[in-house]
Structure prediction request, 1179 residues.
Amino acid sequence: MRLPLLALLAKEPAHGYELKARLEQTFGDAYPSPNIGQIYLTLQRLERAGLVKSQDVVQSDRPNKRVYELTPAGREAVVTWAEEPSDEPRVRDDFFMKLALGPMAGVTDALSLINRQRRHYLGLMRSLSRLAEEAPENNKIGRLLIEGAMLHLQADLDWLERCQEVLL
Amino acid sequence: MRAAVRWIRADLRARPGQAAAMVLVVAGVVTALLLSATLFEGAANPWRALFAQTNGADVWLRLQPGTNTRPLHRLIGVDQVAGPYQATSATVVRGPQTAPVQLWAMSPALPVIGRPLIREGRWLTAAQPRGVVLEASFAQAIHVTTGDTMNIDGLDGNEVHVVVLGIAYTSDQGSYPDQTPGLMWGLRGLVQAVEPVSRHTVELAGLRLADPSATEFAVQQTVTQLGSGAVISVSTWQDVERSVDGGDPLLGLLLALFGLVALGGALLAVGNAAGGRVLIQVQDLAMLKTLGFTPRQLLGMVVAEHAALGLAGEAAGIAAARFLTLPLMRQVPAGTLAAVAPLQAGWVAAVAGGVAAALLLATVLPGWRAGRIWPVAAVRPPAPGKRLSRLARAALLSHLPPAVVLGARAAFTRRLPAVLTIAGLALPTMMITIGIGFWATLDNVQRHPGEIGLAAALTVSPGELDRSQAVRLIDADKQVTAVYRVAAVSALLPGETSTITTLGAGTSPRPFPFHVAAGRLYHAAGEAVASQGLLEAVHITVGEYLRMPVGGVPVIFHVVGRIIEPEYGGQVLAYGLDTLTQAGAVAPPVSYSLVLRPGVTAAAATAHLLTLSHGKLDVAQTVDPAASLGIVRPMLAGLFAVLGLIGLTSLVTASAVGLRDHLRDVAALRAMGLTPAQVTASLLTRMAVLALIATAAGAAAGAALSARLIDLGGQVYGIGSGLGSSPSAAPVLLTAATAVTAAAAAALLPARRAARTPIAATLGP
Amino acid sequence: MILEPPLLRSVGLTKVFQTDAGPVHAVRGVDLWVGQGEFVAVMGPSGSGKSTLLHLLGGLEPPTSGEIWLDGKRADGLTQAKWAMLRRRHIGFVFQFFNLVSSMSVADNVEVAALVGGASRRQARERREELLEDLGLTAKAQAAPSQLSGGEQQRVAVARALAHRPSLLLTDEPTGNLDSANTSAVLRLLRRSHAKGQAILLVTHDARAASMADRVINLFDGMIVDDAAVRPVPVTAASSVLELRG
Prediction:
């Protein structure tokens, strides 16, 4: 939750409900609707960490709302997050976040994201291959595990291709 | 190079059946063509074949006895001189029979020029000083064979008893009795015994020219050199050829036409077989390109492979033709001058060359095309057109079974091969149809000989009876329905130096029933009918006038009709006998042409008349060209078989090529839910559609052309048009049905196999 | 790093197909290079033009425009015959299907490649025996291709592609049609050749195959979108790759 919110704020400052609305808009019904309380909780933690700062905005006919915006540290956190390949097992969620929000945040473009992730996977595949070669013949469970990982990697790479097709 | 050889060897080993089939097709085609040529040569112009075989003389000179012939050797253009031979006129006496003969003095060694071709018996020998050899047509006319004896009476009354040693063919003169006197050879001693007075003999010398067409020049020189007083008469080879009973023009005509069309179809079959094979190999050839074979290498490889197969086929074909010629040679029909000899090298070379050229062309073209395709075709085969044609769409809408529609459409996915397949099947079909037409013509001719001018089966002369007796006898014979008086009178063709035969046949009020192809018969004195050859020779058409000296008297004829007359070399003029008497010409003695009652055979009537007249009547059967055509039917049957084989080859090739194309479609169709039976049906339909179109086209063309071809040939041969009959519907339909069934059968086995292989195996590559 | 001219180089390589539905730009201005002895993989979704690119680089079809440099010599625009000569020295192919000539035995298929490359009959035979033994297919030397399984056929195809010792091996989805055991066998073969110094350009879907390469080029819609070396990423114990799911 933290980084998606940071990424949204990287585009422009917003308050809690706006962030919720934007998340719902971006991810649609497939994504579980975020709890507004959790959002505010996360925002407060981010503020304590110095990644965002808040400001109260006076409204004439309504109670004051608190608007949050990124600090330079917060911006750097987003960039770092975008530029690092996501690691298993939450890759799909994490990477997908990046893909969905990164370009919007203006910190990166879809192609670079995809390429980076892909290179990472290939590197992983390389290591797995070597592991598979070195694994003793009789360690069937171990070999199966490696094979399973490789199959999943292939599936992820295929999905990357799909993302590329659709988004580019 | 090594790689190319490797591929050729592997390809032949991998598909030996196809390779063998190709060799067989080429061999079959070559054999058929060579046999046709052989028969054609022998039948159409047997005299020419004989002339070549006997090393005939281009010019024969009849000189005063004692003329010095040495100057002849020095004449310009003369290669060799034959003779001089002493010759005398005499009469052969055999029982009551007599016949005029010219006896030539020869040596026991066969002459180099004008060498007689022994048919039976042997040539002269010193051991038999009273032995003679007779010329074949003469021997036949006087019913003499080897071993018979007879007397020869000289002009001065000397009679010599001789024995017949043998019978031989010669090209020096025409057939007896068309050309009289008959020809006989004997030793010099015999000739002197018959005619001791050399003044009463003549000298014969023969010239062989460097340029056979320069006969006139040679004759002029002869007369100049020897003096016109020394030269009694001259005959050139052209004269002899013209006067010779031209073999069987009908037979020759049929064979020539057949051979010509056969050539086309044969070449196409060879082409299809070769081209089809190349098409099948295209995929592999493209793969070879990825290995580094250049297009030219591939072309050379493919051509080399097919050339090797073709060469093997040609060699086999030539050998087979030679082998088959031997029994044919023995089947020389009696009475005709047909000479079947092993083909001259020129013909063989022509046939071999033609077939080789067709083979090369058929291989080079697709090979070159395959060469031009970039190698990517090996991995991405160009898909044949995918659009559904309008016809197919219409067919689908009309609820025809889908298998049938798909099959029909599949027939045309590759346009050029489809066209070639159709042509490859249509041509044999057309030829078979034409052959059926020829067969029908033959039947017609035999049933209605009157249509080719043979209304009268017998020609009778009084023989030993006196004229009134003979006439009474003939009139009384109930087997005879009509009698016409006929006289043959020679006439000099205007502007030509040769003579033709004219016939006073019947009278103008009651003309001989010639078969008139154009115009009408003569009805009044002065009117005449002429044959095609004569009309062309004097450059007139029906309706015009012709002035010719006949029997020494110039007569003006009004040519009112064109007749078909297969004898007399196509040049004949016929008119009523009253025209002759009116013109004041002297008519030679007439003979009687008898029209028999239908159902009465010539042989039976002849026997009857001879019995009635105690053998004294001279009865001869009109030469019936159709008789010797008995050989044509089995020959046609044989040719049908070869044509069927050729057509079948085209079908099998088309089936194999098509299956390869559609294997993927088949798999897709089956995956879609078509049952194996439906898939088989679609593949069969494809072949059947091609076959149907081909046979329909071929049969239609054949039916249209058959009669016209015979007529055309008739014109060329001077017989005249109007001879041809069109083929009847039943056998043609039978042929078409057979072809379509064969097409389906050719596709059946591979189709069933394709339909039954597991789908997975056929999908993908 | 020793700077050597690349074995294969393309500049602005383009291929446009004219179809009934209009022109199709299969390859658009591709610049790539393969170094001596380098193993390069080309990945991309179907329709991205990878196969076409391979065909162009191997001279199997002519490009619409662009340059191809093979071993320092200009190769685009060569005639078929000249390309064929080039292939004899420089290029071996392994395709996904249709590799072997159906009318020749396995031995003949391999030897023909060597013969075309200029080997003598004896040399060709020896090379074939060596290659088939490496592949464990000596027993099938005289068999017809149709008698072999898909995996065996593909191994023979690799043998054939290497028979004439080409500078560059071009292969298009060599394992696309194979089961995993055969895939491993073929990949092992490729790896071994590469270890001996063979340059390889591999077009593939298979991530495992691609990961063996020195470099992976990514093609999308006829253009290169990524070109990077493969750096092995350590599979650490902390990484949840090996975590059991659930």
User: Anything to note?
Assistant: The helical segments of chain A are 2-11, 16-27, 36-48, 72-83, 91-105, 110-134, 140-167. Chain A has a mean pLDDT of 83.
